[in-house]
Design a protein that fits this description.
By secondary structure, the chain is an all-alpha fold. The chain has one domain (5-292). Helices cover 74% and strands 0% of the residues. It is built from 13 helices and no strands. The protein has helices at residues 5-22, 24-33, 38-59, 66-93, 96-103, 106-117, 124-142, 155-178, 184-207, 217-242, 247-250, 256-268, 275-292. The longest helix has 28 residues, at 66-93.
Length: 306
């Protein structure tokens, strides 16, 4: 049975929007990290996200069975405290270009994971599109120029970013499984709320109380945007998109994140992108068009995560 054209369009738009807005997270995070530790920045990010999630949770009560609650709690732990603390710790130990290069590998990881765990079929055009967009992300990362004196990359930082991507893969697939029987709004809002509840004691025990009085207005604005826009809105968009299109197709839009981050660097931080970065951007957009502009005549098979 062919996918409904409206569902396909909504899924593409949602995942593309999520990937684009996620790219702003690096910009906002960089501002906040000038005034606080990684743990405190991540904590404030998710506390702001919960400002949007709490009223949604109140109006959308969950109806999970015991097994689904276990999956939601596991996914919340993987997707919030574990993934984000590891990823931003990795980013603090390596360069932005190296971290972006690692993030560009996530779509291929997602396609492989969807094929193995969710039994989604990926044809030759799909694989070529995913590989092409990942190569584009790599070109963008390698085309970035860093200021003199900036800290260099480290193996530990790179490995932490890769580890966080592997963790996010299972978070995505667990959410997709739950959304086969529950709405994206319920899975997203309750997942973020539970994940933040786990994050609070971890950060307080490791980093102590977060700073309040000595944070600038600029940093507060960055934290609010990071939480409300780059976490709450993006996760809602992404999870809704996953209910409309296969995870393997959605993966290509994750590479809009390094593209957006690079453009913000050029126009807001006065960074310079060389020819390879512009070619990389073209590869990402070409891959997105080739993957989504063709007819899809299959439906994804049921998830087999349990």
């Amino acid at each position: 049975m062919s996918a409904h054209p409206h569902r396909l369009l909504y899924g593409i738009a949602s995942c593309a929007g999520a990937g684009t807005i996620w790219g702003m997270g690096f910009f906002f995070g960089k501002i906040a990290l000038r005034e606080m530790s990684v743990g405190h920045m991540v904590l404030y990010r998710f506390l702001f996200a919960c400002v949007a999630m709490v009223p949604i949770c109140y109006h959308h009560r969950p109806r999970f069975n015991r097994g689904e609650w276990k999956l939601l709690i596991l996914g919340s732990f993987l997707g919030v405290p574990l993934q984000f603390l590891l990823q931003f710790k990795g980013l603090s130990l390596t360069t932005v270009s190296h971290a972006s290069l690692m993030v560009g590998a996530l779509p291929v990881m997602l396609a492989v994971g969807a094929a193995i765990f969710a039994r989604e079929r990926v044809d030759a055009i799909g694989w070529l599109s995913l590989i092409g967009s990942t190569c584009g992300a790599a070109l963008i990362a390698l085309g970035a120029h860093h200021a003199l004196g900036a800290s260099g990359p480290s193996l530990a930082g790179d490995l932490l970013v890769v580890l966080s991507l592997l963790i996010s893969l299972f978070w995505i697939l667990l959410n997709k499984h739950l959304m086969q029987h529950h709405s994206a709004i319920v899975v997203t809002s309750w997942g973020l709320l539970i994940g933040t509840a786990m994050l609070v004691p971890i950060v307080l025990l490791h980093n102590g109380l977060p700073p309040v009085l000595h944070i600038s207005v600029r940093a507060w604005a960055a934290l609010a945007a990071s939480g409300l826009l780059c976490t709450a809105v993006t996760t809602l968009l992404w999870n809704f998109g996953l209910t409309q299109i296969p995870a393997s197709m959605a993966g290509v839009f994750l590479n809009l994140e390094p593209l957006t981050g690079s453009l913000l660097g050029v126009f807001l931080l006065s960074e310079h992108l060389g020819p390879s970065a512009w070619i990389g951007g073209a590869l990402i957009m070409t891959a997105a068009v080739s993957l989504t502009a063709r007819p899809h005549g299959h439906t994804e098979a049921p998830s087999a995560l349990i």
